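agent: user wants the structure for TetR/AcrR family transcriptional regulator from Camelimonas fluminis. delegating to structure tool.
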Amino acid sequence: MSDDEKKRRRPRKMGRPTTEDALRLTSHILKSARELFFEHGFDGASADMIAEQARISKRTLYARFGSKARVFEAVILDEIDTQLRALEPSGSDEPDIGSRLRVIADRLLEWLLTPRIASMERVVIAQAVRFPALAANIHDFGYQRAVQWVASILAHADAKGELSLADPVFAAEQFVTLVVVAPMRRAALGLSPPAYDEAARDRISRGIDLFLDGCRPRQEDGCSA
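agent: tool returned. relaying tokens verbatim.
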């Protein structure tokens, strides 16, 4: 056997996984765990089930995340981050403030009013008291990012004289709660269908109109928000 043949036959040394390999494995685990958590809830989805779904050992699962609770938190925050990065507005050419707010409401609710997110919301609500840090992270990671988007739109409208706002951030919090959080919560509780259908769109339009009625310039004082 020639030296070249010996070299080809010699087994390669197994090195440390690359960063790309590690990220790919993490994404694969989160995808597998997401399906189980959304279908079975936190308690119904065991670490053994997640490892089996991902086709890895439970030892690998714990080595990467530390605990099932950390897997759950990573699943929820990854879902929020992935979607919000995809939906983040880069500006709007809509001519009036009502249309600009409608664009951002449509983007958020077309994602949030789905069976998948309704299922996620139910799981999160069920575990909020048990894992308060997760609830706080979701608030900061998701809700506050949406509030900042809306606040920038409102501040611009205030500067143009379309609105009269003492505090655009506070006003944005009220908008997101009224127009986004409320319908998402109703869908999670089964009080309305998890779909952004014609009825939901009509309700959102009325919510936006109600919000703007309280924030448009008046002869006397501006909106207290």
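agent: one observation worth passing along. The CA atoms of residues 146 and 160 lie 22 Å apart.
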